[in-house]
Amino acid sequence: MDNKSLKIIIKHLISIVIIVFIMLILNYGFFICVVRYSPIAKVPKNTVKIIAEEFKQHKQLTAKTKKMIFNNNLWVQLIDSKGHVIDYYNQPNDIYNFYSLLDIAKLSKSYLNDYPVYVWKSDNNIVLLGYPKNSITKYNWFFPTNTINNLPVTLVVLMFINLIITIVLSILLSRKLTKPLSDIIQGISALTTEQQVHLEEKGIFTDLAQNINHTSEMIRDKNNKIRLRNTAVSNWLTGISHDLRTPLSMILGYSALIEEDADSTQEMQSQARIIKENAVRIRNLITGLNLASSLQYEIMPLKLSQVKLSSIIRKAVADCINSGVLKKSNITLVIEDEYLTALIDESLLLRALVNLITNSVKHNKEDCKITVTIIATSIEGALYASIIVSDTGTGMSQDKIDRIHSYDYFNAWVSQTNGLGLVIVKSIIETFKGNLTIEAEEGKGTKITMRIPVDENNN
Q: Class assignment of domain 45-130?
């Protein structure tokens, strides 16, 4: 479980404990208020007090009081100091007409023949008010004085114990709920990176676990199909390339013989040169497609090593000079960090640089100035090696730049002017976990920046 998930669980756990604790206090307080301060709880004592006052003042009950007693199925007795009933109203048949001192003592705290009764003094007499059976429940509470005195401390201790019990129960319940939930969160996180996931399908999250497992299987099947398709496409391109290599070699060979044959007419030599140049273009296109497919489908084995980038740049420029590419162009090298290294495949980066320099020469005028720069840059705290190839040529439209960035080798078309070469360069740099940016404006030149991550410990 990661720290973020743990913080969320702890936050919700604390919220649950606080809510439960507050609810306990509120419920306890509500119960006390109902028992002690409810008007219903005060009715019997108030009623017997009123009746006692009437006997004291009028020596008898008023008509209004009698009506209230009768309507509520109550009954009343007035008992003198010797225990004799001297007056009564609505008295049941099973009630006494004489009470001993012991009976009077019991009446003040209990029942009379299952009738809840209340007593009140009226001069030298006692008023006995009886309620219907099973209408009121009476309890007598007795507590030692020290218990009452220690009640605040006792309540605090009880609240603390209840709090501990609540926390323990909450932890146990939350663990039971959050364990499968944590597994589901990890499963969803794994799905985002297309890792295989298999969650236990039980408990309240059974349906969710089943859906995640099903999604994982679908992703696995999809990746297998894509892998098979990519392999088939790559094998098909490799086969086509192999089949074309022999006839292309023959075309190149015979066209070269015709071009160099002294017996060939000038027209024949010119035509042979055109054939050879186009055969070379086809060969380069096939090589580019093979490289492009290998990069896109990630089936090309990389030979990664820490390489000094300045030496790669010099070698790329030297290759372009030796091949005659830079015969009519001016090129300048600006190396600000001679010892800057990066983890790359040397042959691929060399290919990318040669492609960029060749494109600048091929698609611009002869007086075009080309500059190759290498500098170390820091982006959001990460160190990058920036290799910049800029020229003063004809530039490039924004539409073409957008097509290069969104290019799919086999489902879209990019103009032969810069197109496939730049797409291959972009794929090479992305293979090194870097990125490529193009800044260009028609008629004002082009600036292409390749950024490759650099390990600061190796520089």
A: alpha beta
Q: Are 391 and 370 in contact (CB under 8 A)?
A: yes
Half-sphere exposure of 37 (CA within 13 A, CB side): 5
Of 154-158, 299-303, 352-356, where does the model show the most confidence?
A: 352-356
Rounded alpha-carbon distances, angstroms, from residue 238 to 223, 225, 244, 419, 426: 22, 20, 10, 22, 22
All residues at 6 or more sequence positions from 388 whose CB lies less than 8 Å from its CB, including other chains: 371, 372, 373, 374, 375, 447, 448, 449, 450
Residue extents of the structural domains in the chain: 3-38+143-187, 45-130, 207-294, 302-453
pLDDT single digits (tens) 118-168: 888 888 888 889 999 888 877 766 667 777 777 788 778 877 887 787 777
What distance in Å separates the CA atoms of residue 264 and residue 256, rounded to the nearest whole number?
11
Range of lowest pLDDT (13-17, 266-270, 307-311) = 13-17
> 307 with 350: CB under 8 angstroms?
no
Cβ count within 10 A of residue 433: 10
Closest CA to 87 of 61, 63, 68: 61
Residue 411 pLDDT: 44
Q: Rounded CA gap, 325 and 322, in Å?
A: 8
Query: Is residue 128 within 8 Å of residue 73, measured between CB atoms?
Result: no
| Average pLDDT over the chain, rounded to an integer | 81
302-453, CATH topology level = Heat Shock Protein 90 (3.30.565)
Q: Do domains 45-130 and 302-453 have the same CATH topology?
A: no
pLDDT at 143: 67
CA angle 206, 203, 180 (to 5 degrees): 85
Partners of 449 in beta bridges: 388, 437
For residue 234 the two structure tokens come to 């790559």
Nearest 5°: the CA angle 446, 304, 419 is: 30
Residue-wise burial string across 247-266, b where 16 or more C-beta atoms lie within 10 A, e elsewhere: ebeebbeebeebbeeeeeee
Average pLDDT over residues 5-30: 71
Q: Amino acid letter at 261?
A: D
* Cut 0.85: pTM above it: no
Q: What pLDDT was estimated at residue 410?
A: 45
